[in-house]
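job 3f2a | input accepted
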Amino acid sequence: SSSVYAAGLAGAGGGAGAGSTGTFSGNFSQAAGAVFDGGAGDDKPFAVSISTASGDVFVCGNSSQGVAGMDWALARFNSAGVRQASLIDSLSSAGDNCHGLSYSAAFNHLLAVGVSGPNFVLRKYDTGFNLLLSTTHAGSGTTSLGRQLGGSGAVYTAQGGGSPLTVRLDKFNPGNFSWISSGSVAYSSLDLSSNAVLSRDMMVDAAGNAFVAIRRAPTGLKVPDSIGILKFGPDLAFISSVSFPSLGAFDQSGVGT
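job 3f2a | predicted structure (257 res):
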């Protein structure tokens, strides 16, 4: 049999204040699951990755435990939902968010992507969250990460935001994070019109085609979101898109095989 893992936000955190010590509780046998409370506000998970060999579950997001705004957060649980390792890291004083996570069974390491203040961050860790490699580039917005299935195993990242609103893809060498190529598409050329765009998830097939799931984030809460999927070729040139009308006020989106 197989399991499906879901990560989300349940209520607000406590009121201990920034810099407080977060706490882990629960496990997968309990109705509430495994829980982390940073103690100073909302703690948000953004991505889950699973080791098929060990059954360990990796989660990334942000934590209100930070000493300066939200901090970069990573956690590893065993198949029973018991915490094995965790990392709360203040990368900057402007707030940090880890948006994408990918575990590599071949190399037994993790790739994580997100933002730190106004910058885009790509990092590699071992399974104990010791930092192995890191690169930082100018760029902001919501980020997502994918690894080519087969082929070169190249690392792909997607960002959504900027002015004018753009979805941008970048391709990196998995060994040293050297930049290889990039591609982008202006949001105004797609079949969605909105005031903001967020890159929510992405995947890359064995041929190197990249698929990015996006969310239209409207200005007001009373205006419903929309979701879409964008396709880019192996050269990261934009090929096509498809969009779906909103089902409610806060639609999210994801892609997978």
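job 3f2a | The mean pLDDT is 74.
job 3f2a | closed
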